[in-house]
Design goal:
Helix content is about 30%, strand content about 25%. It is α/β, with parallel strands linked by helices. The protein has a single domain, classed as Rossmann fold, CATH 3.40.50. The structure holds S-adenosylmethionine (SAM). S-adenosylmethionine binds next to helix 1.
């Protein structure tokens, strides 16, 4: 569902999503603060590469972007032709180059929650000690649901913020930032919670 839907809305998405929202840039700065110049950041569910990958590159780092949507990835390639863009799902992608940070921004909640721990395990496993990842999860306990955007249907599922932070803790990470971007309103808006986590040494 999400693959076809993102392919359909890619141009509308690109027009709507070019600037940071809320404290997104601060979260990204917290990830970049833990990376050396020239390091590669994994951008999983990268969309068009704007504004996240674009900012990463402007800050002197490289991007390896992954997305399941050919149309979104084509825009990312057009926007940032010198970076690496891989057509793959979060579930199937295997990081095989050294990476020093990871973004799972507004993408993990499009995957069934039973797959979140394995994906996070894979991503954390690919990072060196001290590296950081940032992700969004749903802001409340709820069942998987389908919502519409630009007239298309999208699947959503998520662990709660507490469960997500526990998963990251069990994977050997500390939570650097964990805060609501928007709180659930008890209705259509299930809320959105931002996490920046750091991989600890054993
Ligand atoms: C809401 S957009 C967010 C894009 C970008 N991260 C941003 O912050 O603007 C979600 C993106 O995740 C991608 N996506 C959703 N499910 C995915 C999956 N299972 N594997 C890979 N990409 C996925 C979509 O194609 C889309 O580009």
């Amino acid at each position: 569902m999400n693959l076809e839907s993102y392919n359909q809305i890619a141009l509308q998405w690109a027009a709507a999503r070019s600037a940071f929202f809320g404290r997104e840039r601060q979260y990204l700065d917290a990830v970049l603060a833990a990376t050396p110049a020239g390091a590669t950041i994994l951008d999983l569910g990268c969309g068009t590469g704007r504004p996240m990958a674009e900012y990463v590159v402007a800050q002197g780092r490289r991007v390896l972007g992954v997305d399941q949507s050919e149309a979104m990835l084509a825009l990312a390639r057009f926007n940032l032709p010198s970076e690496q863009w891989v057509l793959a799902t979060l579930e199937a992608f295997e990081p095989d180059v050294p990476c020093h940070g990871a973004l799972l921004w507004d993408s993990l909640f499009h995957v069934q929650r039973r797959d979140h721990e394995p994906i996070l395990r894979k991503v954390v496993g690919a990072l060196p000690v001290g590296a950081r990842l940032m992700l969004t999860v749903g802001g409340s306990a709820h069942s998987a649901f389908v919502d519409t955007m630009f007239g298309q249907s999208f699947f959503y599922d998520s662990n709660t913020p507490e469960e997500s932070e526990q998963i990251l803790g069990a994977l050997g990470c500390r939570i650097v930032i964990g805060e609501f971007m928007n709180k659930p309103d008890g209705g259509r808006d299930k809320g959105r919670y931002a996490i920046v986590a750091e991989k600890l040494g054993t």
